[in-house]
Amino acid sequence: MTAKVFIDGEAGTTGLQISQRLDARDDIALIRLDDSQRKDPDARKAALLAADIAILCLPDAASIEAYEMALGTSTRLLDASTAFRVNDDWVYGFAEMTEGQAAAIASAQFVSNPGCYPTGAIGLLRPLREAQMLPAATPLSINAVSGYTGGGKAMIADFESGASTGGFVYGTAQAHKHLPEMAKYAMLEGQPIFVPSVGNFAQGMVVQVPLHLGTIAGKPSLADLHQALANHYRGCDFVKVLPLDAEQGKIEAEAMNGTNQLELRVCGNADKGQAVLVAVLDNLGKGASGAAVQNLNLMMGVDQTTGL
What we know:
By secondary structure, the protein is α/β, with parallel strands linked by helices.
């Protein structure tokens, strides 16, 4: 059976990446609008309601508008904005996050695609919370660097034109839009300190969570942390936990580019009781478009690896 799919916002960075992944598939019929129709509410609504599944690659306000158009209809939505990520009426689209999440995505009408930074942070922290190895009230800091494509068309233009020539840190006021998402799905009592940054490279991402193990109730070891991650993700197609003795030298932000893989490491110094949890992913892959295709596959009832 062929699924009718409409990408609302196909001309944007995420939308283009999704359409490239879907173009060659014979199990999907893409509904497309002319350039002149992409901001026409009537044309968008007609395409939305003609689709089995609509993928929203839009600013938050436009995603909310599309949701209101779809209410009371059979159209299923997969939203890539931040508008619904902590909304309990939507299923969070991180299939590997916890037992039963993939099945919940498969049966949902409304699915919110995760953010790129939260995918790395939640991917590292959720297994430790579920294993009761990390108390919910543990003070945490999360540091990350992303390629500039995560900043959208304006930032891409700045870097590719040479207007921006170096990386930068931002979001230091601790009001980043991803913080509520991280706290909710990592099952934290409070929001962590989050320090994101942008590097002078197009795509790729490293997320790091440092831990002083002696300050954590139960004083878990590096091996304990690693075992919890390995147990949680055993058998997953798109999440790989590297061996505990993996090389702790240079960790490349671009190592997972072009894939839908999330690569996790437990690094640190056992003698000093210090750990650094590290996630590497493509901010446009598992951090955006790749995850969207994986979620679309689950919603369609096909193998989640299809096209990935």
